[in-house]
Amino acid sequence: VEALKKSANRWVPRSRQKKEVKLAPDGTELFDMDDLALKGRSLLNKLTLENFEPITTDLINLCAQSRWEEDAKSLKEILALTFAKATDEPHWSSMYAQFCATLVKTFSDSVLDKTSLDKNNLPIKGGFLVRRCLLLRCQTEYEKGWANKIPTNPDGTQKEFEMMSEEYYTAAKEKRRGLGLVKFIGELFGLGLLSNKVIVKILLDQSNPENPAEDVLENLIQLVKTTGEILESTPGIMDNIFKRIQFIIESANISSRVRFLLQDLVDLRRSRWKSSELNQGPKTISQIHADEEEKRRIDEKEKSDRRRLNTNTRSFSNR
Q: Which of 94, 114, 163, 232 has the most beta carbons within 10 angstroms of its beta carbon?
């Protein structure tokens, strides 16, 4: 039997395709946008608190390819991928925000964007360029209105879908990404990468008392939890936001569940933002082990105390 012949236009896996290697003037390899995106996604998928430093170094090196570009497209691509990961994985948003902060602090001034000019009509560069890209990305992602894609009833409550249906998963995904976005924006603000002005605009937008949608209110709750304590240092801001929240609690046509969540937010402010649930971001494996050891120690102490109490009780009853 004659062996099969390889077709000239046969499909070949991307990893086995032969490509011309492009080199920058300094000898470093330059990746096209498809390859850069693949490498960026791979690195972000591997990013944990344990390997934070080496992985972020590799990501920053990918961003640095923008020194050979006029529009910093490599930097913008990595930031877009970071936003996608952070919004899809809200529990890890503080880690992704920390990567952005590291990028701002360490990014070389040799990278500039000729399409983005400062007030002196000069290209923005280095850390200032990263900040500008973050701000624009926040505006773009927020204005996409993920929350508004979740179908609602005429009274603003979220529509209920049959469990396990395609509509159910679509609504759950949009809700998760909406919550993830505002949490990530809050984390960026907490690290000083976004201004008060940006956060206040979003808070005012989401606390609009005119027919508020419940998914928008849940986003508001998440953002206030992340930024409220910091914003208290600016007189008047949180007073105004909580007046609107109180009006919504008392007057808006919302479900009891969301009303209770808003009331919990009011109580959280009254307690000066002290809550065991706040600031519970991702932990390293060693921190998890330490927490487990502390829990085990407390459990053992409680058991010992109970045994001692039982012994003393029996001794007293035998007298």
A: 94
